[in-house]
C-alpha cells in the first residue's frame, strides 16, 4: 500500500472511530429516554362505596388532587340505591316533576364552604331556603311545648326580632350568638393547614380546641357559658330537636352550636342532591347505581378485591380489584365483610329513627289544635317543638315529650289536582312515630272518629289529603358527648368517612371528610411518585457513569 493509500485508510479509520464514539454518546441516552418515555404509569384504581355527600366529594376532590399531581386515576362509585345524593333527595308533589321537595337534608348555610363553592362551580341556582313558603301569615316560626306556644317569631325586620328576643330573654341571645361564632371559627380550623388533612379526627378535634365542647352535653355547655335555661329550652332546644331529634341533655355541645349556625340558610333549586350529582360528573367516575358491595378482601400491599352484585332478582356476584377503597357512609349500615378484619372496626352507635311525612292538602294547619281561639288566628308556618317547663326526660332517647312530633313545616303551595280547587298546601312532618289518622285530622281541623287512632294518612280521603309520601330515615346518630372519634384509615388502603358522624352530622361535614380522605390518599401517591422519581434519577446517574466507562474502554 503506497503512502497516499495508507493516509486515506488512516483518515477513514479515524473518522470511523470518531463517528462510533459520537453515536455511542448519543444513542445510549436516547435509548434510555426512549425506554422511559414508553413506560406508561398505570392508573390508580379507586373504589368509593356510597354516592352521598361523603362519597361524591371524595371522588370530586380526588380527581382534582390527582390531576394536579399528574397521576392517572380511575374512580368507580358503587351505590346500592337507585339515585345519587344519599340522605339528600327529593320527591315530586302530586308526582309532578315541577314540584320537587326535599325529603332529607333540606338546607345548608354560608359557612358550609364545600357545598357553597361546589354550587358556584357547578352553576346551580341557589335560593333562600324558605323562598317558596306561602307567607300567608306574619308568624313564621312558633315553638310549641305541647301546651302552648312558648315563642313566636314574626316575619318582620331583623332588628325587631332581635329586640323582641332581648326583651324576653335578656342577653342570652347575644351570648348564644357570640358562643356560636367562637365555636364555629374553631371548627373551621379543620379546613386548612396545619390541621388539614388529618389522619386522626380525635387529634384534629383536640388541635382545634373543640374536645371540651364535644365532651359535655348541650345543656351543660350552655349553662357553663351563662345562657339562661329559658332561652335554652324554648329556642335552642327547639333547634336541636328539629335538626337531630334530641334534647339538650342528650346531644353534645358542639352539635348544639351547629344547630344555631343558621346565617344564610339556602338550598339548591331542584334539590340539594344536584350538588353531589354534579360532583360525580366532574370526577369522571364510573357511577354504578343499584350495586351493593358485600365484601372486601385486602392485603397490605394491595390490591383489594371487592365483591359486589347488582340489585336484581337473580344477582350473580362479581369481583374487581382496586388499589384504594373508600367506605363513604356509616359503618353499621354498610353491611360489608372485610377480610382480614381490621385491627379496629368502627363502633356501632345508635341512629335516630325519624318518620318523615310529606303531604298536600287544601286545608291550613288548624289554630284550634294549638289552642289559638281567635277567629282570625293563623298557626305559624313552621312549628318547632320543645318540652314544657319542669319536664325532665334526662338523657332518654325517647325525648319527644307531650308535643308528640318534632316539627311541622309549610313548605309551599302547588296547583290542586282539580284546577277548580285553586291551590293545595304542602307540609312536612318530622316525628318519632308514624302519625295516625287522628293526629292528621286534628292538625287539619277535621272531625275525628274512634277508628282514627288505628289508621294512618293513607286512609284519609283525597279531598282532604290529595297526595302523601312517607319515609323512615336513619338520618343522624344520637350525638352523645364523647372525646374520641373514628380514624379515616381502617386498614392499609381501606378508608372510612363515617367517623365524622358522631362529631358533627351534616352534609357539609361529610363533604369535609370526603375531601380529607382524598387529600390523605393523594398525599401518599405524591410521596410514592417522588420516591420513584428519585430512584429513577439514581438509576439514570448510575447508568450514565457505566456508559461513560464503556465508551472509554
Automatic annotation (TrEMBL):
Residues 526-553 are annotated as: Disordered. Residues 1-33 form the signal peptide. Residues 154-531 form the Prenylcysteine lyase domain. One of its GO terms (biological process) is prenylated protein catabolic process. It comes from Aspergillus heteromorphus CBS 117.55. Keywords: FAD, Flavoprotein, Glycoprotein, Oxidoreductase, Signal. Belongs to the prenylcysteine oxidase family. It holds the Pfam family Prenylcys_lyase. One of its GO terms (molecular function) is prenylcysteine oxidase activity. InterPro entries: FAD/NAD-bd_sf, Prenylcys_lyase, Prenylcysteine_Oxase1. This is Prenylcysteine oxidase. The keyword 4Fe-4S does not apply. Residues 526-539 have a biased composition (Basic and acidic residues). Its cofactor is FAD.
Amino acid at each position: 500500500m503506497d503512502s497516499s493509500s495508507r493516509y486515506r485508510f488512516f483518515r477513514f479509520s479515524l473518522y470511523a472511530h470518531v463517528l462510533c464514539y459520537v453515536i455511542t454518546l448519543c444513542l445510549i441516552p436516547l435509548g434510555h429516554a426512549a425506554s422511559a418515555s414508553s413506560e406508561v404509569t398505570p392508573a390508580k384504581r379507586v373504589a368509593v362505596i356510597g354516592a352521598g355527600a361523603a362519597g361524591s366529594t371524595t371522588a370530586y376532590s380526588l380527581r382534582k388532587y390527582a390531576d394536579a399531581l399528574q397521576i392517572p386515576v380511575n374512580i368507580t362509585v358503587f351505590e346500592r340505591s337507585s339515585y345519587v345524593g344519599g340522605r339528600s333527595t327529593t320527591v315530586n308533589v302530586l308526582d309532578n316533576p315541577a314540584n320537587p321537595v326535599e325529603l332529607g337534608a333540606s338546607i345548608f348555610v354560608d359557612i358550609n364552604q364545600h357545598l357553597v363553592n361546589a354550587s358556584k362551580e357547578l352553576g346551580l341556582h341557589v335560593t333562600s331556603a324558605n323562598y317558596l313558603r306561602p307567607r300567608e301569615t306574619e308568624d313564621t316560626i312558633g315553638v310549641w311545648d305541647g301546651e302552648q306556644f312558648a315563642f313566636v317569631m314574626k316575619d318582620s325586620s331583623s332588628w325587631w326580632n332581635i329586640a323582641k328576643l332581648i326583651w324576653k330573654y335578656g342577653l342570652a341571645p347575644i351570648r348564644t350568638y357570640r358562643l356560636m361564632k367562637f365555636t364555629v371559627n374553631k371548627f373551621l380550623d379543620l379546613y386548612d393547614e396545619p390541621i388539614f388533612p388529618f389522619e386522626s379526627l380525635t387529634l384534629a378535634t383536640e388541635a382545634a380546641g373543640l374536645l371540651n365542647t364535644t365532651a359535655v352535653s348541650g345543656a351543660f355547655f350552655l349553662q357553663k357559658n351563662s345562657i339562661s335555661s329559658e332561652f335554652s329550652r324554648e329556642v335552642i332546644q327547639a333547634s336541636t330537636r328539629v335538626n337531630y331529634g334530641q334534647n339538650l341533655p342528650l346531644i353534645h355541645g358542639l352539635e348544639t352550636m351547629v344547630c344555631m349556625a343558621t346565617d344564610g340558610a339556602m338550598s339548591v333549586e331542584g334539590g340539594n342532591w344536584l350538588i353531589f350529582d354534579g360532583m360525580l360528573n366532574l370526577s369522571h367516575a364510573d357511577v354504578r347505581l343499584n350495586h351493593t358491595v358485600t365484601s372486601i378482601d385486602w392485603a397490605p400491599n394491595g390490591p383489594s378485591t371487592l365483591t359486589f352484585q347488582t340489585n336484581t332478582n337473580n344477582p350473580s356476584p362479581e369481583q374487581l380489584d382496586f388499589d384504594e377503597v373508600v367506605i363513604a357512609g356509616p359503618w353499621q349500615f354498610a353491611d360489608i365483610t372485610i377480610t382480614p378484619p381490621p385491627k379496629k372496626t368502627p363502633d356501632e352507635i345508635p341512629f335516630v329513627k325519624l318518620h318523615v311525612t310529606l303531604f298536600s292538602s287544601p286545608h291550613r294547619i288548624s289554630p284550634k289544635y294549638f289552642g289559638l281561639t281567635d277567629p282570625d288566628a293563623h298557626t305559624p308556618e313552621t312549628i318547632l317543638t320543645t318540652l314544657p317547663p319542669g319536664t325532665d326526660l334526662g338523657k332518654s332517647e325517647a325525648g319527644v315529650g307531650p308535643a308528640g312530633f318534632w316539627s311541622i313545616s309549610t313548605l309551599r303551595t302547588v296547583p290542586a289536582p282539580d284546577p277548580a280547587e285553586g291551590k293545595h298546601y304542602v307540609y312536612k312532618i318530622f316525628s318519632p312515630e308514624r302519625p295516625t289518622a287522628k293526629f292528621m285530622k286534628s292538625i287539619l281541623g277535621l272531625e275525628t272518629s274512634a277508628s282514627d287512632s288505628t289508621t294512618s294518612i293513607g286512609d284519609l280521603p283525597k279531598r282532604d289529603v290529595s297526595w302523601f309520601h312517607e319515609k323512615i330515615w336513619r338520618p343522624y346518630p344520637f350525638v352523645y358527648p364523647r372525646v374520641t372519634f373514628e380514624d379515616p384509615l381502617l386498614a392499609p388502603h381501606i378508608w372510612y368517612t363515617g367517623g365524622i358522624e358522631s362529631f358533627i352530622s351534616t352534609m357539609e361535614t361529610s363533604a369535609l371528610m370526603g375531601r380529607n380522605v382524598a387529600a390523605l390518599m393523594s398525599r401518599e401517591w405524591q410521596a410514592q411518585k417522588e420516591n420513584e422519581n428519585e430512584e429513577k434519577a439514581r438509576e439514570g446517574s448510575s447508568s450514565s457513569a457505566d456508559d461513560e466507562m464503556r465508551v472509554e474502554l
